[in-house]
Design goal:
mainly alpha; about 75% helix; two-stranded antiparallel ribbon; about 350 residues
């Protein structure tokens, strides 16, 4: 198992570096990998000279922030998914279950359709971030009863809230004009096309905080996998674990959704694939899932902007295109192993 873990980490690390170099070099103005490395080395004061003309500006104003945002978004979504699956004790769980994405989408749709521009270009990301956090808080508080929160109640409350947010979005879109409708729909499909350095710096603190906090739950999530009663006997405070871990999930997911829109299936598929390779231990599952999520989103963004260039495809559609069949296979595999759902 140790060899498999090391091989997976090395493979994902190498893949991420190569994809970042390709992502920075491929585009309307192609740049050789040597020029990309020379530009980075020059900015770090190590050696070399930057590419001449506009290419250096393209790298640092468009390509590098986009690649870095893809890394942060992918790592955040997959890390949040790994924690969610541990909290729910179910490999089919993902952050959207507790309404993070739905709440963010409602807030983003509302500010777009109502024409709210209080924070300028930051209005939509700020509203989406706040909407995601508020929705998770509502789901958590509504599902509590007698000082306890049961997994089934959380899931059912999340389903109800997701249904309600979907209805609100449809009502808002009914009253939108063509431009607003196009803006909301494009945002909901997920994209890194509008990436800027301020957006990267906006999501960076949330991503770093969440990625550093999530591994701290590893031991407790491992004990929770034994069942709630054994976990309590071993000293795990279940309610405190659920509350703090859901806050971390909301922090990671809301920040990612706010700047990149809704990119589904990363939080569901990546942790499950990693679990199949290195096992269920959260000590390794959480950080390796984050690394795998970064690889998936950077690769997806590269395909999205090159497959049908100059037309750019939404990343959310691509991840759903791959994640949907995988989810179906996952359901069939789980059902076959358990001998049925009933």
């Amino acid at each position: 198992m140790r060899t498999r873990r090391l091989a997976l980490v090395l493979g994902l690390g190498i893949a991420l570096v190569l994809l970042c170099l390709l992502g920075a070099g491929i585009g309307a103005f192609p740049s050789p990998v040597a020029d990309v490395l020379a530009s980075v080395a020059h900015r770090l004061g190590l050696a070399g000279a930057p590419p001449t003309g506009y290419l250096d500006a393209v790298l640092w104003q468009i390509r590098f922030p986009r690649v870095l945002l893809g890394v942060l978004v992918g790592a955040s979504l997959a890390c949040a998914g790994a924690v969610m699956q541990g909290v729910f004790g179910n490999p089919l769980a993902e952050p959207a279950v507790v309404g993070v994405s739905g709440g963010a989408a409602v807030a983003a749709s509302a500010v777009t359709v109502l024409g709210v521009t209080a924070l300028g270009t930051w209005t939509l990301p700020a509203a989406a971030f706040a909407g995601g956090l508020v929705t998770v808080a509502v789901v958590y508080l509504v599902s509590r009863s007698g000082g306890r929160t049961e997994v089934v109640t959380l899931v059912l409350t999340g389903i109800a809230v997701n249904a309600a947010t979907g209805a609100v979005i449809n009502l808002l879109l009914t009253y939108s004009n063509d431009a607003q409708l196009r803006s909301v729909v494009f945002w909901m499909m997920g994209s890194l096309a509008q990436t800027t350095w301020p957006k990267v710096l906006a999501v960076l603190p949330c991503a770093i905080a969440g990625l550093l906090l999530a591994p701290l739950f590893a031991r407790q999530l491992d004990l929770l996998a034994l069942g709630e009663r054994p976990a309590r006997h071993l000293g795990v405070h279940i309610e405190r674990l659920r509350g703090t871990s859901m806050f971390v999930v909301a922090l990671l997911t809301s920040a990612a959704v706010a700047v990149a829109g809704m990119i589904g299936f990363v939080g569901l598929v990546v942790p499950h694939v990693v679990r199949m390779v290195i096992g269920p231990g959260h000590r390794y599952l959480i950080p390796v899932s984050a690394l795998g999520g970064a690889v998936v989103v950077v690769a997806g963004d590269l395909v999205a902007r090159t497959a049908m260039a100059p037309v750019e495809l939404p990343i959310g559609a691509l991840t759903a295109l791959v994640g949907g069949p995988f989810f179906f296979w996952l359901l069939r595999r789980t059902r076959a192993r358990q001998g049925g759902w009933a």
